[in-house]
Amino acid sequence: MKRLSLEQELKSNTYPGRGIVLGRSKDGSKAVAAYFIMGRSPNSRNRIFIEDGQGIRTQAFDPSKLTDPSLIIYAPVKVLGNKTIVTNGDQTDTIYSGMDNQLTFEQSLRCREFEPDSPNYTPRISGIMHIENGKYNYALSILKAANGNPAACCRFTFAYENPFAGEGHFIHTYMHDGDPLPSFEGEPKLVDIPNDISAFTDMVWNNLNEDNKISLFVRFIDIASGKYETKIVNKNK
Description:
Blueprint: H1 6-11, E1 19-24, E2 30-38, H2 42-45, E3 47-52, E4 55-60, E5 77-80, E6 83-87, H3 91-100, H4 105-108, E7 124-132, E8 135-146, E9 149-161, E10 167-172, E11 189-192, H5 197-207, E12 213-222, E13 228-234
Antiparallel strand pairs: 1-2, 1-10, 2-12, 3-4, 5-6, 6-7, 7-8, 8-9, 10-11, 12-13
């Protein structure tokens, strides 16, 4: 698979929706995660990311303007021991509970489907990072309606063992803007990952569409020690 420029992938797409990037820093020492949200409606745009323990959650920027919390208020990131869970919905809690009860990442998601937001049927995208004894692996999942038909759910899991330094994988909810919005297709995209968290955060944020971007979370985890650094950027301030 050809390695793509994450900068160009973001710059060339006005509406990838919500996106997850998991990978490894160029020097090999850090496990890297990024999660961003975008929105077109006033309700969706009225959000910020805030830290919540070791993870984060979404919150209404102006509570008086929140019209429907379903599908937009959730915890995108949670930490379970040496595992970091990143998703685009409340399936974060489903994965956390399942894996806490000895289910696998894939098994935990068996009870979930795409979002019930007709006519888009937004895919549920999820990621899991596992660091143990100096070793790192990650996986990405997408649950989507079959060719846009909600009568069937297609489930795909992509697992990456011992990922190479400077490489990551990018999955997002929509191929591009549209009405209805077309679901992501194919394997997660192989993208380049740098060393510096500040430069990486700036690159992702600055190349997301200015009108549609809402919030960004980035975390670099030291594979040897487990210590991490987090960056959060919110358009609403």
